[in-house]
Amino acid sequence: MLKNNIITQTVQMLSPNVNSKRTRVSFSLTEKDIEIINKEAYLRQQFYSDEKDKNDLAFYNDYDMQSHYFLAVCYEEILNIPLLSSRYYYDKNAIRTAILGDKKQITFRRPYSLNWLLNQHSFLLDRISVNHNNQIFHQNEGKIFNSFNKEFAIKNPNALLLFLAEMYNNEKNLSTYQSLGFSQIGATVTNAVPYWILLNDLRNITPET
């Protein structure tokens, strides 16, 4: 059986609003960057294709990003198959907007609060896309998420990773995130959909292991 080589790479992106064509462009414009951007675009389009509220161009072209941001993609290197991707950003205004959601039913566990999070070295993860129909993903799921976490820890040392996870299957779904190192610190509502506010302290991840 062929051993899968799972790797994760990150690309720093310019805001689409800084160029006249409003296209997704990386800082360094290397061929590798373009390859990673195309992998992320493919996964995002595939993963959200059935969701009617994700059909606007802004969801796929990142028009909502007013400053630089990052794309992370985990893929199988030998077969060049993208398996998991996400977007993340440090922009405090964008983080505030995401967490506030519908601006109601926002709760935090003590001692956490929105202001506390915004005053930390923190970034928000979103646009998570999974190649869930691929056998390699299911065979290497744990390895894939570990690779993702380690890449975040390498690129963002001493940072707090924030993620809004949709509440479905409640405790079962929450336990999955907890097994990846996330703590549930609050809850919010976006477009009438409830989300957990999750935090992963990357200082607890050793990239070398």
Total E-strand runs = 8
Secondary-structure element sequence? EHHEEHEHEHHEHEE
Here the CATH topology equals: Aminopeptidase
3D shape: globular
Helical fraction: 25-40%
Domain tally: 1
Indicate the structural class.
alpha+beta
Share of residues in strands: 25-35%
Placed side by side, the strands forming the largest sheet appear as 1-2-3-5-6-8-7-4
Radius of gyration: 17 Å
What is the CATH top level name? Answer: Alpha Beta
CATH architecture: 3-Layer(aba) Sandwich
Which keywords apply here?
Aminopeptidase; 8 strands; about 210 residues; 7 helices; about 30% strand; eight-stranded mixed beta sheet; alpha+beta
General description of the model:
With 209 residues, the protein is α+β, with helices and mostly antiparallel strands. The chain has one domain: Gcn5-related N-acetyltransferase (GNAT) (Aminopeptidase). Helix content is 32%, strand content 29%. It contains seven helices and eight strands, in the order E-H-H-E-E-H-E-H-E-H-H-E-H-E-E. The chain has helices at residues 31-47, 57-61, 92-100, 114-118, 135-139, 141-155, 170-179; strands spanning 6-13, 69-76, 81-89, 107-108, 122-130, 160-166, 183-190, 193-201. The chain has an eight-stranded mixed β-sheet, with helices on both faces. The longest helix is centred in the first third of the chain and has 17 residues, at 31-47. The protein is globular, with a radius of gyration of 17 Å. The model has no long low-confidence stretch (mean pLDDT 89).
